[in-house]
Amino acid sequence: MSIKSTQTAVVNEQAIVLFELKNNTGTTVCITNIGSTITSIQTPDKNGKIEEITLGFNKPLEYLNEAYLNNCPYLGATAGRFANRIAKGKFSLEGQSHQLPINNDANHLHGGPDGFHQQIWKGQIEGESLVMTLVSPDGHMGYPGKVTARVKYTLTDEHELVMDYLAESEQACPVNLTNHAYFNLRGKKASILDQEVMIMADHYTPAIDAIPTGEIAPVKDTAFDFSSLRTIGEKIDASPIKTYDHNFVLNHPEGQLERAALALDKESGRVLEVFTTLPGMQFYAGKFLDGSYARGDWQFDSHEGFCFETQYFPDSPNHPNFPDCIARPGKPFEHTTVFKFSVQA
What we know:
With 345 residues, this protein is mostly beta strands. The chain has one helix spanning 66-70, and strands at residues 2-11, 14-22, 28-32, 37-44, 50-52, 78-79, 85-86, 90-93, 96-99, 108-109, 122-126, 129-136, 147-155, 160-169, 173-174, 178-179, 196-199, 203-204, 207-208, 211-212, 217-218, 230-231, 245-249, 258-264, 270-276, 280-284, 294-295, 298-299, 307-311, 326-327, 333-343. The mean pLDDT is 97.
């Protein structure tokens, strides 16, 4: 495995760097220190042809483009401090009320408009891993406490991209980090609706206007039953919002690294498996991609990429029955997620 870095620009006296991780068996992953963002993943198909399977930009500075940030799909970004939504941007913790900025209808999304996705992280090569570090000051985006976040990326010769997350907070604070990569296993412009998905979850969290009701409901006999492989499009119109953008309650115990999901594209033979220690995963079918962004001549339109966002449940600070998302001194956010790539003949 090799890692190389290229400085592409300087912004506010900070170097913008693109890192390339390459294994010995045909997989390449590119990551920029803008937002600790996965800009590219290239893997072989069943015939050995190596192609791009994520949505993103070739030039890192595009992730700081004002138009992109004002209409942000978080392509490949590390989302934080709190990935996903907090209702009305409000939560109470240890007797104090907190108000976060509103940036998604009436809610707070992915850490707010100045969240981790647009910060310039410090990138460092440590042995065969890339380590990204960010210090978020007390009060940033309304969150209490100084948080030091770290993501270690390791690419193995078994085509596994291992992401080890660590976020230490000096005060009690909700913390929820995820990677927001959009995948299209076809390796070219195509709908993802005929790609197949299985999710290891017997329950999900129903939501109204994207905010969980607090119920943990069974997926059986619903549009959310991915207990066996089926196409994304098969039951999508039976979803209340005619797409998927929902949190699944994973079957494994929190803290145990287990498979959470599998995706298959029969045409290319590519397979993606997701493993995580986190208790939930947002499955997003990319409906709200609107053609605003592109890589070369591949314009990213609706339902052309899907996301497997491992996470604590959305709006967790406001639901005591959800898994505890509060990081504290001596109790950091410490989780692992793995994207594993393979082929099926």
